[in-house]
Amino acid sequence: MVEAQFIDDPLIPRVDVQFSFNARADNGKMLVDAVKALPSRTWNPQNKMWSITGTGTTKHPNDVLEGLGFFIDTELDDRWHPVAVPHGAGAYRVYPRFAGYQDVAADIGRGAAWSKAHQSFIVDATDLSDGKRLLVRGLITDVEDQIHDEAHHMLQHPFDDHDPDLIEDLAEVTSQGDQELLDEAAELFGHQRAGFGGETHQLRPFQQASAYAVATTRKLVCHDMGAGKTCIALAAVDLMDTQRLLVVCPPIVATNWVSEINQWLSPVFALTHPDQQPGQFKSAESGPWVRRVSTGRKLPDLPEVGSLVVPSSLLQREDVRELIAEFDPDAMIFDEAHEYATWESQRSIAARELARTLPVGQRLAVTGTPSDSHPGEMANPMAITGQLEARFGSYGNYMQRYTTVDHFGKHKPLKKNLPELADNLRELWVKKTKAELLPHLKGKDHDWRLFDVSTTEYRKAHVEVIDNIIEKVGGIDETAKMSPGDIEEFADTFGMGVMSPMFRAAGRSKIEPALGVIETLMRQDDSSPLIIFAHHQDVINELYDTLLDETDYEIDVLDGATSADQRGAIVEDFQDGQIDVLIASIKAAGVGVTLTRSHRIVFVEHWWTPGINAQAMDRADRIGQEKLVEVTHMVAVGTFDEQVHNVLARKIDYVDTIDPDADMGESQTMESSINDIITGVIEAAVAKAKREVKKVKK
User: PROSITE patterns annotated for this entry (predicted)?
Assistant: First the structure.
């Protein structure tokens, strides 16, 4: 027996059919095979039925169904052709309906990106229209004029008024700078606003030149890591006279962006709006001119002028999008834009939709690794800035021109057209290597990076430490009676021992962001190995296991368990270029080895005194090193790690002031500062003990 029922839906119509397993079509073919051969159909195991959603474009759907023995009372003319409805700024949802997925995808071309969530294609206006006519056969829509208007607007190039030779010269400025060129740019485009950078921060000549290029035409900031992309982007939006800046960034660097904004841009608003008050709730921590959105916290109030920092992971939340709309930014910066490399991902779609609420020219993308494996990874960052459509016409045109699809459906570069793409990109971004920008520097360049991490394990460790202190002292009664002298004596005797769980938890919280840092550095330059320093053995082990599971790098470990023979063999392999990533103990590998094959170091953990850390860095920064040693210091915000960072940062600033060549010298230690941190935790244990004693007495 064969049954068919039409389920009417203007966007996703379907016909549900049921039949016995051995049923056959009129031509004798097994009916189940005939249904499977249709362009679009799904099996519902719960109801034991097939849902037919697409029959193709060559034959009327009623004829196709009747040919299989399925008869319905409804003529499907009005449900046959694809239909387009709006989906955010510049994009539309195209529902294939009975035309079927395959035929409609072929008509849309390389611009067809399927969304499982919406059961439709998400397609840019420029892939549906050339500004005058629809490009998809039989497309039905109530907003045809809107599609044409949006496509026409997106195809316009907004930068024709600027002298391309001047912009090219600005983008090409490297280490030496060109004061005459900068003066010419300042005369044409203006100076940084009063207050930019505060009293202590100043742009280097190449950063200033890049900022002019970005503010005017080149909306992609792609210099190597450590070249100051953040300050260049902030300088560019400052030159654009931005009043309300939105920054979209990965969650783990949100705090870092707040810090950078307060250093560079907030001093401008401190002069123009000095009476503006800090935000309510936790946003108050960011100061009067910056707000940030955080998971698990109330949404902040909004400043009249200033900046709003939003983690990219929250872009799809409706309340966050409403907050952004209320903020009404006049400029946007999308950080780590390579994270939007997959065009059809929900994150990428949300980023494009948000970016397109602002005109082209007011939105920037920042990344040190714009493309890793094929040109398609550049498409979404360029769509975010608006350069994709203005330069290449549409996503579909771009992909057709510069990529091909292998038999597995994977995008591959179309090599013959890559030189042409390179010529185009040189006019769309500022991108120089650190060697070009900073060739005169030797010694070490420090990049302190703040990461927002999960503090769940850290809070547990904090509770564990307090309970351990109470137990070691002798219980709540004895702890509650501790005097300031007792606390000081306990800190001197047991301090580091009882603090170890918090120290270790802070290190473990950075395993995931460390993987991101390592992968970014390796994408940027896989010819130079990395040295990853950590202290705790379980952090070293987890780093090794994670990298082994999730990457194909050649990895080795140099720690306290490494024998002398193994140590020599590992160093020799490293210097010969046979190791991509060396995970090293700060103390065990901090002396007696030469690792000059690498000029890139990442500190996932630090030791307490800068001299110990400096010794570790000196494994690469020694005779035989011909490059600037780039040191990335990872700091987990909201953990004990942050306190260590504050102490080390103060020390580094001090040494740099009195002896710039010393670079974290060993002349002084910070034991008193560390003792202050330890004392604070012991005092928290005393306070808890006193509360417990009070409860018992009640």
Answer: HELICASE_ATP_BIND_1 (PS51192), HELICASE_CTER (PS51194)
pTM of the model: 0.71
The answer to whether 212 and 168 have CB atoms below 8 angstroms apart is: no
3-state secondary structure of 425: helix
Give the rounded percent of residues in the chain with a pLDDT score beyond 90: 52
Whether the CB-CB separation of 559 and 584 falls below 8 Å is answered with: yes
Burial 452-463 (b: 16+ CB within 10 A, else e): bbebebbeebbe
Tokens of 159: 């930068």
> Would you place residue 285 in the very low, low, confident or very high pLDDT band (cuts 50, 70, 90)?
low
The amino acid that residue 314 corresponds to is L
Cβ atoms 20, 86 nearer than 8 A? no
Question: What's CA 497's distance to the chain center, in Å?
Answer: 37
Q: Which CATH superfamily is domain 164-435 in?
A: P-loop containing nucleotide triphosphate hydrolases (3.40.50.300)
Q: List pLDDT tens digits, range 377-406.
A: 899 999 999 999 999 999 999 999 998 887
CA 222 to chain centre: 14
CA distance 668 to 658: 13
Which amino acid, 354?
L
Tokens representing 405?
């699809």
What are the tens digits of pLDDT across the range 647-668? 655 555 533 432 333 444 333 3
> What is the residue type of 333?
I
Give the class (CATH, top level) of 444-450+511-669. alpha beta
> Mean pLDDT in the chain?
87
